[in-house]
């Protein structure tokens, strides 16, 4: 069951993944027949991946991340607010959760697609949010813009995919729950090793480096089980749809009308016409 753990522990000293020396490319080349044939030699990660409730998470250095004293004090303040019934909701206004939350916090199914030069991870939540992991040998951009999920490059190590993610927005949380967490505050780097621990169980081993709020890397594993049932196929969803109510206007058109919100993005009580 822990076949992936020794390899992840070795990643603690891993230098950033580097692309082989090559001339800069300004275009992505069209895939060849050989590129498509190579997809068939990759491990089978097809199907829909559901959160494994038996192995929801493993933490190598405890579920509690190794916070700095200042970050730990901030976390305790948020826990006190939660106990008092005034939680500081982290995920509001339909902003993406970002990495590592896309894996660590999700309760929604995942789907993984292989195409030449990339692995795409879809999440059912909010319009099928996605991650692109480049496997075409490119490196990280020297001046890339920070984003919620960051910039990910990967390489295959046997049947496991080793991924490095950088350029993550400093506002993205290191979470302990929906109402307890702290922004990473910059310079976060994540190493993942993704692979099958059992024929129908996929594990994401994560090592989170966040030097502004952690005293050492936070290592954690999330586990997903495969479903091939059509009843588990993705459905359309939109976080923002909850910000509107359905109405019929004076012309008989079906329209969405904005609902008033508090500063945190929660809907305020309204009276229908």
Structure commentary:
The protein is of the alpha+beta class and 273 residues long. The chain folds into two domains: 5-13 and 31-227, Lipocalin (Beta Barrel); 238-273, no CATH class. The chain has five helices and 14 strands. It has helices at residues 5-9, 33-39, 69-83, 101-104, 125-128; strands at residues 48-51, 57-59, 110-115, 118-123, 130-134, 151-157, 160-166, 173-175, 181-183, 189-198, 201-209, 218-227, 244-248, 254-258. Strands 1, 2, 3, 4, 5, 6, 7, 10, 11 and 12 form a ten-stranded mixed sheet that branches. A two-stranded antiparallel sheet has the order 8-9. The protein has a two-stranded antiparallel ribbon with strand order 13-14. The longest helix has 15 residues, at 69-83. The chain starts with a helix and ends in a 15-residue tail after the last strand. Mean pLDDT is 85; it is low at 6-14.
CATH class of the largest domain: Mainly Beta
Q: For the record, what is the CATH homologous superfamily label of the largest domain?
A: Calycin beta-barrel core domain
CATH architecture of the largest domain: Beta Barrel
First and last CA, distance: 57 Å
Rounded mean pLDDT is: 85
Note the main sheet.
Answer: 10 strands, mixed
What's the number of extended β-strand segments?
14
Structural class: alpha+beta
CATH topology of the largest domain: Lipocalin
Number of helices: 5
Morphology call: globular
């Amino acid at each position: 069951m822990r076949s992936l753990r020794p390899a992840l522990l070795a990643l603690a000293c891993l230098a950033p993944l580097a692309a082989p020396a090559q001339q800069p490319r300004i275009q992505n080349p069209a895939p060849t027949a050989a590129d498509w044939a190579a997809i068939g030699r990759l491990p089978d990660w097809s199907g829909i991946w559901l959160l494994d409730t038996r192995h929801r998470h493993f933490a190598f250095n405890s579920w509690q991340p190794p916070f700095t004293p200042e970050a730990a004090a901030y976390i305790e303040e948020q826990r006190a607010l939660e106990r008092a019934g005034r939680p500081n909701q982290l995920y509001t206004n339909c902003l993406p959760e970002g990495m590592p939350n896309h894996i660590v916090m999700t309760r929604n199914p995942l789907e993984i697609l292989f195409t030449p030069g990339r692995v795409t991870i879809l999440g059912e939540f909010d319009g099928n949010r996605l991650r692109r992991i480049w496997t075409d040998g490119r490196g990280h951009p020297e001046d890339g813009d920070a984003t919620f999920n960051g910039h990910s490059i990967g390489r295959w190590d046997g049947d496991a995919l080793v991924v490095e993610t950088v350029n993550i927005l400093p506002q993205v949380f290191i979470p302990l729950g929906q109402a307890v967490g702290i922004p990473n505050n910059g310079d976060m780097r994540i190493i993942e090793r993704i692979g099958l621990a059992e024929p129908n169980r996929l594990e994401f081993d994560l090592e989170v480096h966040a030097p502004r709020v952690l005293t050492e890397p936070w290592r954690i594993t999330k586990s997903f089980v495969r479903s091939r049932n059509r009843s588990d196929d993705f459905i359309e969803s939109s976080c923002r749809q909850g910000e509107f109510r359905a109405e019929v206007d004076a012309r008989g058109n079906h329209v969405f009308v904005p609902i008033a919100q508090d500063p945190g993005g929660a809907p305020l009580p309204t009276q229908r016409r």
